[in-house]
Amino acid sequence: MKRSFSFVFLALMLCLLALTGCSKMRSFERDVQVVLDVNGEMTGYVTVNIFNNAVIKEPQAPANTVFRGWTLQDSWTQEESSNVPIIQNKGLVRYNDIKDALKGDERSIVIHAVFAPIPRRDLVIAWYAKESTSGFNQGHIDVLKDKLYEYLRSEGYKPESMDIVFRGYDGGVADTCAAINKDGDVDITVGWSSSSNLTGTGGWTEGVDFKENTGNITIGAKARYSARISDTDLSKKVYAWIISTFGAAEAPAQSAPAPAPATETAPAQAPAAQAPATDESTLVIGWYAKTGTSGMDQATADALEKAVRHYLDSNGHASVSLTFRPYDGNVADVQSAVLADGDVDVMVGMKAFALEGIEMEVQNDVAMGPKTDRRIHRISGKKIAIEVFEWLKTEEARKLFVSAQ
Amino acid sequence: MEKKIKAMKAASVCLYILTFILMVVAACCFALSNKIYFLFAALALASLVCGFIITDKRQNLEPAREAAAQAGAKVSKKPKALTVMCVAFVLVFLFGFIAKCFETSGFSVKVSDFTLTKEMTLSYNGGEINGKSFAMKNDTSYSVTMYVPSTATEANPAPTVFVLPGFTRTKATMAQYCIELSKRGAVVFCLDPGGQGGTTETSTTGANGIEFLVQYVYNNTDDFKFVDRSRFGAVGHSAGGGNVCTLAADMAFGSYEESIIKAVYISGYIKVSSANKYANLRSNAALSYAYYDEGAFRYQTDTSSFEVITRRFINEVNNSKNSYDDVIYDYGYGDMANGTYRIIHRENINHCFEMYDRISIANTIDFFNETLAMGSPLKGTCQTWLGKEICNGLALAAAFTFVISLCAFLVKLPFFASMKEAQQKVMAQPDPHARKSVAHKVIFWFSMIVTAVIACLDYIPLANLSINIFPTGNSSSVYTFVFPARMINAILLWAVINGAIGLVIFFGTTIVEYFIEKARAKTKGVEMEEFDWGKFKTVKICSGKSNALVNTLKALLMSLIMFCSFYLLVFVSYKLLHQDFRFMLVSAAPINARMFVTAIEYIPLIFVFYISNSIRVNGSIAREGWKEWKVLLVGALANSIGLAFILLINYVCYFTQGAPFYGYWGNGTEIWLYVNMVFALVVMMFILPIFNRLLYRITGNVWTGALGWCMIFIMMTISASVSYIPMY
User: Fold this and answer.
1) If contacts are CB pairs under 8 Å, which of residues 15-54 in chain A contact chain B?
2) Range of the domain at B319
3) Closest CA of chain A from B8, distance in Å
4) DSSP states of B392-450 as a string?
5) Quick one: B488 and B421 in the same domain?
6) Is the Cβ pair A4, B319 closer than 8 Å?
7) Same domain as B212, residue B152
8) What is the pLDDT of residue B493?
9) For FRET with B37, which of A208, B43, B168, B696 sits at 20 to 30 Å CA-CA?
10) How do beta strands A371-378 and A346-350 pair?
11) ipTM here
12) B425 and B368, same structural domain?
């Protein structure tokens, strides 16, 4: 019995010891200071442990390089930079990423930003992989690839032995444009929208980020735009081939120094895609006048027009000419009318609403009168349109849609 | 002397039971980060040592008693089962009554249930709010519990909070929130999500039903005059947290003034899909995520990690972008007056106990107290819900005692007495002083260790296999009659495989041992001693004065009586007092047709494990000639230590590496939730051999206890989990 007592007592003491140990669990958490080294400059530090990661900002890549990520490796040559082992995330440091590099009781470690030269390929074609907007899918790109290879062969190239990349980009216009810039090696894009869209939402600069942009290019299910980004001979040659093969005969190019065309001719498969307005001195807001569906009535439109006018006047845009234009009828009729007018910057009160060849920014679930699911579409990339579109998101503006009635 | 022995025996038994309860309480306090667990653990230790001392003293007196018995003195062999049964019965309702006092905050809150149907959700305003439909599509129903404080009246409408549990949990597991909020003057509604508890809905639409309930309460101005429609809040844990986020976003309607939900508390849920809704919220919001949340290992990228999601939470407010670079926990960002208030909490607890954590509950209460202007002077940390939980736990212990003593009482009746009399031969134990050979000891302990190791190692692979072979798989959208309890399918496979292995080892090692003894005797050139084949006989149901079939039927009848009496107690307790039996993750809730049909599928297969355990405890461990407490302890440990090691492995890894050992399995299947289930399973597996042994000693056969406990435990497990069975 005494022996049993000893064993049981020992077991219980061990249990108590275990519980006591567990209550000190935090001692397992070793805080480690992670210092961020960007090109030899210590730009900051973060602290991590097994239960706490740290968010870090991606450093700005020097010209003609791309930020690959962070590494624990101390040094490497320029040639090695593309093969340096990097940690899992570019914007997050985890204890697990650095623990194996800690020696003994070390509580601090340096991680280094890795910038690699942008790899020079023969040709990189970026395609907009957001199929609902661009009408592109992998099947369309495979067809494009086959045709391109055929063309290159006819021109004396050997495409099979060339470094040609087709790279899909998914997401919003802003995100995809940023990603293309970050990758830095794209020669031609297909599937995005007008120049005003690229400069407005995408944040690009004509002449810098892209050289020319042409509409009515029908490679996928929709007529979209194609932009040339690089100035290489091959890039120019292929771009010209894309325009002549997939574009409408009269499709004019939006060359960098040239102003955007007012109209574009429709391809056989698609209705006319009106290039959105670019005149910053005018602002046209269309509204869906089918009150039963949109919830918008004349009183609301009047109140809204008054408020927008006031906004323009008080924000340094007094010279902007404002037009409020009602559109009635079914959705298809409105779409056709807006396309035909070609100058509408913002459309208010629609829900299902698509303009062939034009990518729009949308505000969902906007309450208008008794309706709660209406939308506001920004059609043009004009700065004034973007500014007013943003203002329409505010509570002050949203109230007008509801309370004017 | 007889009285003294009885008193000592009773005292030692009480002390052992007290030890167990104290250890459970200590473990729970520890899990809840309550440092008082030291006190409970020390008390448990003291209680156990006292029990051993008394047992030892009593055993010293036994020879004298036996001598007296031999001298013709009459010795009462059994305690009076009827007395124990009556006391247990009274205790069930006494503890239930006390629990009700806690639940109703001293009868100041009215607690009632109702069923939400499609017709109800369509009956007011066509099921719409601001032209948006929130009406049920299917002819199913949701089970709802409502807490209405006496202060909530038409003249003084009260703030209202909707509470939603997470995956596999029922509304009863969120009672702590309901109790504490209703005590502070809020009307509270709590709902069983689809496929869980009393709900028959077969989808997760309407944010798992909570949108239908909110719409019904919001539009129904006839029955809910006591709710203040301008002060609605919602809280959910885990998947429930994701659902209340969806609810608040769907009912935001563009502005704080228009938003139906004015305050939302998202607990234990940080998926990117949920974070994408933050910008759409027009209500004050809180996000809490346990510091030791085992599920965090899934979110380790620069778009999904907790650190990134929390930044989005405080920056993506009202469809605009703030520019906070750092997150300060427990700090209120924004303005409560216009619905831009945001606060983030990170409590020192793990995922499955987060909803029982005192600090976590206090954070929730304080959030609603402020954002819904509840005006309660009570501090959030001033909580009484644990009283209900403990009383429900004690009621569960009393209900088990009732069932055991009922069997002891019944077996004395002539009808059942014949069954036990017939078993007297097989119950005969070998001479306790007989020396066991070294080979026997090696085989015995080796088989114990092997079965424990197998039980530890095969649970997770079998959980993964269950995802692949059963129709429900890992999906919450497949409703089927074929093994519909998705999470219990893992236990099913584990139980069948380990039960079968246990039986093979039991019979196999006995035969091997026989041949070893025979070979040893032959080698030594001596005659082999009589081998103990008695352990095989424990399986048998003897004919006695009646015949074997009749006795078998009686054994089965007693199992049924066990099951029915237990669940009758649950039912009556719930009907009279609105109390079921539970302690945190171990619970016995009222059953319905869905659970019953589900259980019928699982019981026959899982029974393999229960009978295997009963045979091994009573036919093997109990024949080692040990004292009874040692038999029970070894049996309990042998059955549970494998599972306990799963937890040990998982959490040692977790606290040293930051990711659980069992996170993903195979080709990336998420299995971490199956480890969470082990917390409840390990408790049941510890108790099971003890209960099987008690029933064997009462009935004389291994079958009654195995079947009875199998039915009760499986039903308990099913009623506390999810069942995707399409029954309405």
Assistant:
1) 15-16, 19-20, 22-23, 25, 28, 49-54
2) 107-383
3) 17
4) HHHHHHHHHHHHHHHHHHHTTSHHHHHHHHHTHHHHPPPPTTSPPPHHHHHHHHHHHHH
5) yes
6) no
7) yes
8) 95
9) B168
10) antiparallel
11) 0.75
12) no
